[in-house]
Amino acid sequence: MSRLTTDAGRRTDRRVWIRATIYMVATHVFAGFVILLFEIGQRGR
C-alpha cells in the first residue's frame, strides 16, 4: 500500500501539482517579458 502525504488529514499531492503548474506558468510569463524587453531594446538601435 502506498503512503500518501497528508496535511491536517488532507491529501497534498493535488495541491503540489497545482502549485507547480502555477510556478511554471509564472516563470514562462516572466521569461517572455524579459525576452520582450530584449526585443524592444534591439529595435531601438
How would you explain this protein's 3D organization?
This protein has one helix at residues 13-43; strands at residues 6-7, 10-11. It is mainly alpha-helical and 45 residues long. The chain has one domain (8-43). Strands 1-2 form a two-stranded antiparallel ribbon. A hairpin with a 2-residue loop joins strand 1 (6-7) and strand 2 (10-11). The mean pLDDT is 87.
Offer a concise description of the structure.
By secondary structure, the chain is mainly alpha-helical. It has one helix and two strands; from the N terminus they run E-E-H. Strand 1 and strand 2 (10-11) form a beta hairpin.
Terminal CA distance reads: 63 Å
- Strand/helix succession: EEH
Beta percentage is: 5-15%
Estimated helix fraction:
55-70%
What's the Cα radius of gyration? 19 Å
Helical/strand content category = mainly alpha
Characterize the overall form: rod-shaped
| Helical run tally | 1
In total, the number of domains comes to 1
For the secondary structure, the number of strands is: 2
Write the layout of secondary structure elements.
Blueprint: E1 6-7, E2 10-11, H1 13-43
Antiparallel strand pairs: 1-2
Distinctive features:
45 residues, two-stranded antiparallel sheet, 1 helix
